[in-house]
Amino acid sequence: MTHPYDSDDLTWMRRALALAQTVMYTTAPNPRVGCVIVRDGRVLGEGATQPPGGPHAEVGALRDAQARGESVAGATVYVTLEPCSHFGRTPPCVDALLAARPARVVVALGDPNPLVNGRGLARLREAGIAVTTGVCRDEALAINAGFMSRMSRGLPWTWLKMATSLDGRSALHNGVSQWITGPEARADGHRWRARSCVVLTGIGTVLKDDPQLTVRSVATPRQPRRAVVDGRFELPEDARLIDGGEVIVFTARADAAKAARLAARNVRVVELPGQEPHRVDLPAMMRWFAAEQFNEVHVEAGAGLSGALVAAGCIDELLVYLAPMLLGEAAGLVKLPLLERLEAAPRYEFIDAERVGADLRVRARVADHWRELMRRVELPTLS
Amino acid sequence: MTHPYDSDDLTWMRRALALAQTVMYTTAPNPRVGCVIVRDGRVLGEGATQPPGGPHAEVGALRDAQARGESVAGATVYVTLEPCSHFGRTPPCVDALLAARPARVVVALGDPNPLVNGRGLARLREAGIAVTTGVCRDEALAINAGFMSRMSRGLPWTWLKMATSLDGRSALHNGVSQWITGPEARADGHRWRARSCVVLTGIGTVLKDDPQLTVRSVATPRQPRRAVVDGRFELPEDARLIDGGEVIVFTARADAAKAARLAARNVRVVELPGQEPHRVDLPAMMRWFAAEQFNEVHVEAGAGLSGALVAAGCIDELLVYLAPMLLGEAAGLVKLPLLERLEAAPRYEFIDAERVGADLRVRARVADHWRELMRRVELPTLS
């Protein structure tokens, strides 16, 4: 049985979520977790997941309380994800919690990691600690959609970033596209790059724009990896993105000599041929990402790859920056198979719309993907 | 000198604005005005503009106070527009206010009507009544942008309504467009039709869709007029919009016999030839609307007329319903002259973005048009 929660629980869980938000760029492949320990409306300690190998949020919060000279006995622990109960790179957080003897633990979501999945909470309950679940579960899932998706679906959580005029144009007829959106929107786009595990583009964009695909407009201690869908293995060996950081090239058929030269420069070549000649198997690429512990994929590509990913069901969210202008006849955003009926169009549900500088950031997600994810991470009923 | 205002003033002015909002569909060609009379935090009376010929908001509020047995002497009157000081269809509101002897009058905006423009406030001040101006002026201008624009610029305030997928498509390649947006968005679109003085479309839409262009999804005691831009005078005499209500057809050259037949059915034919053959002079059409006391023009047209109005500088606002779907290659929203540089694109500023059912309503306006309007309706400094 789960205990009911009140508005104080919401307040403290939001604080724990805010702590998780502070480590968005640094915990991968682990989830971002925040933890606050409270007694009588007073914070005893707080923590957030440290980079891989470092302490998890719960241990950080317990140590923080200790450093402040506070005993956690009888307190309430708010944590955005079920405490782990297995030995990974660090000992189980549940053991540390049991030793500290809080009266109650409130969690937002269960850990879909099959090594945890309800076991952490079961051990707390067996020790007589009251457990409440489901507080702020939507917000908690949004912060870790990638980790949750990888653990529960064997897929990363993938968003497609687009910058467009109000009439859906990404460039003029002559190719000019810099800049449709303003500096604030471009910086916001880099924040989404920074939280991702990999920035994915197509060979067309590499050949046309020669992008670096790095995070530049915001400070981050860790660069996401870069990946290119390159069916014919056309990647120029002098492309700017080959800069020493890890790059992955997905191709339908690799040239061994070129692959070897690229490997020496930290470019990993992955052969994933699709059904059609010179095409990469995009769903297989997504499964590959999950198997390789990539949680979140940030796609920034031309109309061809963007449309192919949408049509293949590989996109979970749209991240659209709308510029307040009209461009008329010009390049479109996504190339899709010709539709005969509106019912056949890829559909989304809006998540939010927010002004970013002079532009509008609109987020939308595939409702079924989100619902499936939520269903999979719901905690098992304990008897 | 104008008196400062405080947060109570904001609260009461918002109530007056809410009253003005209740008469959005019924006051044209007069402005929508709300009035609240307050003493010691208590409402003594309130009113909103009645249909043309009926009492204005101030007189309505004074009568309401009288009916409640309240004296207005020494009270504060909040009114969203400067009280009129001239005889129109009704006697001047300023005279009624002077007789009631309030201590203070707070107004949001000056009346740009050259017959009023500051004179109403000057007379109040001369009588020793304190006057405060500028409270909630943006909201007040938004409610009466059309009236203000007609009085100060000799132009209506014109918005272009569009329904589109997230990638800027208004129909599939085969013409299917019903329905990209959901029933809530369509009903909201009818609310904008209802507040307008005229719903304007192009002959292409009439020939393709044979629309009625009436307000149906919301209740209104008054239907806006309908207008068609029809350069070659191709309007079919069995078009559904010829239904007895007033219709205006703008054409480059009318056929006298057909015009006479249409006139008998309440269709007014207006010849306004433009520079190019078979084209209507769109800016002249806008001036015609203002001269004929049309405050607000609601445009719902295909890509051709929409683009021509944008390119001619006739559009003040965009009213865009974004559906959470992608359509790929399909019909665009606006046909514009080919652009070589992004700097040449028509630009707007976002006003708001709001969920309407499953869709997103995004409003944007031409910043210069709005600023010019605000500048023109600012009250003259009184010495």
TrEMBL record, chains A, B:
Binding residues annotated for Zn(2+), in chain numbering: H56, C84, C93
Sequence ranges assigned to domain CMP/dCMP-type deaminase in this UniProt record: 7-132
Positions that bind NADP(+): A163, W179, T205, D209, G302, A303, G304, L305, S306, G307, A308
Record's catalysed reaction(s): 5-amino-6-(5-phospho-D-ribitylamino)uracil + NADP(+) = 5-amino-6-(5-phospho-D-ribosylamino)uracil + NADPH + H(+); 2,5-diamino-6-hydroxy-4-(5-phosphoribosylamino)-pyrimidine + H2O + H(+) = 5-amino-6-(5-phospho-D-ribosylamino)uracil + NH4(+)
Keyword Disulfide bond carried by entry: no
GO MF entries: 5-amino-6-(5-phosphoribosylamino)uracil reductase activity; diaminohydroxyphosphoribosylaminopyrimidine deaminase activity; NADP binding; zinc ion binding
Cofactor(s) the protein needs: Zn(2+)
Active site residues according to the UniProt entry: E58 (proton donor)
EC number from the UniProt entry: 3.5.4.26, 1.1.1.193
Name of this protein: Riboflavin biosynthesis protein RibD
Gene source species: Achromobacter deleyi
Gene encoding the protein: ribD
